[in-house]
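A reminder from the course coordinator: this example appears on the midterm review sheet, so study it carefully.

Given structure:
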């Protein structure tokens, strides 16, 4: 029988760098002095200390989409780009690599373009880290784990979405309404997520051209390269984009930071895709702006469902990132699961000194 102490010797989380350390030589989503750095996805709270890892680690492992996004979104300082490219290993979902008798596999997760879960097999142990996820169709549930390391962004029983399926339908209706009324719709959100929304709009038969700035265009190209069907999108500043804008009928995609400066002159409908949880899927902010709650994270029920389907021997709740790790751990314990919260509270407090 494997004891908790034995197993927890293979898992640790660093309060400062947010490194999820698995096995002997692997660190995920934060810097640690280990030869292998894995990136689950291209969000800043999972790319902590990337520059240090580029210098220290022998290999940087992620899905090919994440490896490209990380460069495109400028998480790699230019003078480290060459060394990053040399050390980077693109790992497709369900492919494995092995270093020092430790096997690494990435599994799909519904979060953003390229996002992955990490499965490590070391000695006789199977260790899994979910990264950020929501429990959509894409998310593979890791089974037969000795330890499941799970995020807890919405690990509070008060955070339950009652409208899981409705948001997309409501967003589609709003876009159609905006196009009918103004001919134009502006959609604000984050890289990776917006590209998924673009693909969904196409899926629902919305064929109006998309326009976007240079960086959004590059990210959209990466999204298409890795399987999203978008099509008919143009880079602002080109002749084609000018013609589209002059036609007066299009959808423009902008990064969330631009939402503050949105147009409120009755010529365009604004749709802001927030990652936060609200009590209602969609709400009107002003005469020309709607806010849609398009969360990338599992709510409490989905977190619990993941745990039940995975049925791991032990659970480690990640407390190094935002959320409700202690509340979630307590709820797990109440249901009979063996749980540890890492990093331990003392270490978390220590970082504010
Ligand atoms: Zn994320």
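Designed residues:
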């Amino acid at each position: 029988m494997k004891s908790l102490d034995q197993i927890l010797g293979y898992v640790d989380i660093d309060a400062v760098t947010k490194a999820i350390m698995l096995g002997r030589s692997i660190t995920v989503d934060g810097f640690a002095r280990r030869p292998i750095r894995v990136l689950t996805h291209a969000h800043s709270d999972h790319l902590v200390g990337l520059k240090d890892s580029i210098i220290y680690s022998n290999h940087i492992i992620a899905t090919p989409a994440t490896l490209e996004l990380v460069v495109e979104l400028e998480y790699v300082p230019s003078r480290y780009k060459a060394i990053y490219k040399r050390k980077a290993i693109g790992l497709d979902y369900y492919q494995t690599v092995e270093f020092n008798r430790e096997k690494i596999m990435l599994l799909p997760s519904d979060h953003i373009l390229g996002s992955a879960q990490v499965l490590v097999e070391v000695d006789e142990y199977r260790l899994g880290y979910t990264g950020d996820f929501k429990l959509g169709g894409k998310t593979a549930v890791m089974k037969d784990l000795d330890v499941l390391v799970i995020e807890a962004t919405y690990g509070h029983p008060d955070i339950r979405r009652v409208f899981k399926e409705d948001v997309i339908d409501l967003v589609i209706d709003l876009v159609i309404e905006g196009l009918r009324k103004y001919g134009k719709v502006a959609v604000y959100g984050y890289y990776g997520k917006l590209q998924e929304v673009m693909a969904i709009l196409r899926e629902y038969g919305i064929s109006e051209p998309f326009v976007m700035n240079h960086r959004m265009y590059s990210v959209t190209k990466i999204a298409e390269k890795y399987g999203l069907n978008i099509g008919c999108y143009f880079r602002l500043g080109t002749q084609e984009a000018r013609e589209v804008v002059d036609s007066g009928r299009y959808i423009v995609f902008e990064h969330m930071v631009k939402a503050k400066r949105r147009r409120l002159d009755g010529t365009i409908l604004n749709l802001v895709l927030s990652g936060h949880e609200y009590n209602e899927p969609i709400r009107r902010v002003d005469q020309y702006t709607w806010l849609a709650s398009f969360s990338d994270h599992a709510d409490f029920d989905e977190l619990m469902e993941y745990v039940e389907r995975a049925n791991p021997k032990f659970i480690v709740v990640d407390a190094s990132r935002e959320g409700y790790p202690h509340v979630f751990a307590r709820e797990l314990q109440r249901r009979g699961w063996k749980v540890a919260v890492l990093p331990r509270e003392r270490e978390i407090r220590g970082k504010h000194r």
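The pocket of zinc ion is lined by residues 41, 43, 46, 111, 132 (CB under 6 Å). Confidence is low (pLDDT under 50) at residues 349-353.
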